[in-house]
Structure prediction request, 709 residues.
Amino acid sequence: MELNYNNQIASELGLRPVQVMNTVNLLSEGATIPFISRYRKEMTQSLDEVQITNIRDRHEQLVELDKRRQSILDSIEEQGKLTDELKAKIEAATKMSELEDLYLPYKPKRKTKATVAREKGLEPLAEQIMEQGNIDVEHLAETFINDEKDVKSLDDALQGARDIIAEWVNENDEARKKIRKHFSKSAVVQSKVVKAKEADATKYQNYFDSQEGLMNAPSHRVLAMFRGEAEGFLKLKIAPTENEALEMLDDVFVKNDNEAAGQVQDAITDSYKRLLLPSMETEYRKLVKELADEEAIKVFAENLRQLLLAAPLGQKNILAIDPGFRTGCKVVCLDKQGNLLHNETIYPHPPQKESKQAINKITSLVSAYKIEAIAIGNGTAGRETENLIRRIRWDKPLVAMMVNESGASVYSASKVAREEFPDYDVTVRGAVSIGRRLMDPLAELVKIDPKSIGVGQYQHDVDQTALADSLKDVVESCVNSVGVELNTASKQLLSYVSGVGPSLAQNIVDHRKENGPFKDRKDLKKVARFGNKAFEQAAGFLRIRNSKNPLDQSAVHPESYIVVKAMTKALNCSIEEMMADEKLRNQLNLNDFITDEVGLPTLTDIMQELSKPGLDPRQKFDFFEFAEGVNDIKDLEVGMRLPGIITNITNFGAFVDIGVHQDGLVHISKLANQFVKDPNEVVKLNQKVEVKIMEVDVERKRIQLSMID
Prediction:
């Protein structure tokens, strides 16, 4: 069966079977996606992480399909009803819906109208009517009247027969395929407001009386309607045109134009309205919800990737401020490694208004702790605090930046934060998180549940397991693409390194505390339970800045050190000399170093890494300032042009922080002059943009923006 999986997946994804087979084998052996993508290119023929993920996911789906297939075969066989023809159909089914349709007639049932009719002995009547011969239906039905079986009249007999026929119609494989196809092409979703709750449902105003094609409805609208229904504000109905559906069923079941056929048609109508339609509506609700979830998760994952890979300021002495009005602004000072050196609270804003004292205090802290940059949280009192900092005249260059603090409060109250700072309250922890985000967003954000970071689209409405799995893939991909400094990384950051996980991450930290810094990558094998497999998966992604072996600072995997040694031998130089001299490296013919295990892709990667060992793939830090004098939504005027920063991207547009405590929306139609299908085509998270104010609703706190001239 595995061979069938590989061929099928290869066909579906446009790949070679050998690529799929080798990838599946590597995954089954415990290899991670980043490891396979980076260090097993010869085996996969250079598949990237997206392709490997698609192979993994499709393989898991097919395994689940086969598990269900076997369960169905076993169930029908236990009933003694498994024919060769039915078995062949079940084994040939390629979709879960096909399997369930085939199983439906044999599925154990609760008591239904049809089972009651069978208990009354009416199945022979149903069978004769279903044949649609030229019979006297009423005369035949009268012979089934039986007071003992509770068939007391002609109508009772005919109704029971129609109930049985209705169930046959509902369980017919061909009928279900036709109606399913009709749903796919023609179903519409109708949304209406619940009248008694109209006054409280204003946020769903667009869906008070709406209708659109089900399969064409954008994911954000689908999720909005489902949320409105779940909250009791909306009523949804999903259905295609009824007349066409009934005509399709007539084509399958009606074979004549006589009295019996009329009974069959009545049963078809009942079957469609009572059984088939509700069944298909449930199925398509599930289908469109899954599709909407998939799209929303994709948007969230891409936003998260961009946020995690935001440009780091780097190792600087940081003064970080978590702004506030009544409770003051919490100030912390951090060293270049992000360690907390000092904390206190200042009160520059109302009601205290101690701005002079606050400026003096910040100035003295900047001097005392040799501060090189100031991070200011962008929440309550953020702009006011930024303006305060801008008023200070510094005697040296100093970067001051607003930092997105979404999720900082979640971190500050978390177990992780309590472990890091057991002697400090949540306000200090939150300020530390803000400062560290400026220094290295990735290292700090991995400590927070991705759903709390605030870059999603209906993230609380989608399948939470699928969302968590996707976001874990993204975090793991980002961490491993950047690489992790072994001697300074937190337990949380280490846990996302390929092959490590939370338990080994803790062991690494414990070993570091007990034995001091790791001197080289080989020292990893001294960590408790860090075996050869973990070393193989993790070593290439871990960096040791001051190792005696310069390759330990690079992404060259230890398994390839022997290759680099052969290169230096051929050049008669040291590793350091080869890394420093491009002319030396250019003398090498890579084909001379190809072996059965090491091919040109790996050799090319090695050469690229030797030219810039351990280079951070993230963009360089870019300074940004909001417009002066625009601090509140009331300061906005239509027509204004303001600098802003992209904070969230959805299917319908992008949200932009313009420094007024409320993000504005650039609708997808206002992102560019040309038609845009995906906002990610033209904007990225944290991108600096200029926007024009199109509309301001102060009461509803809504700002409409445009990026079109």
About this structure: Residues 633-706 form a domain with the OB fold (Dihydrolipoamide Acetyltransferase, E2P) fold (CATH 2.40.50.140). The chain has a mean pLDDT of 94. The two ends are 58 Å apart (CA to CA).
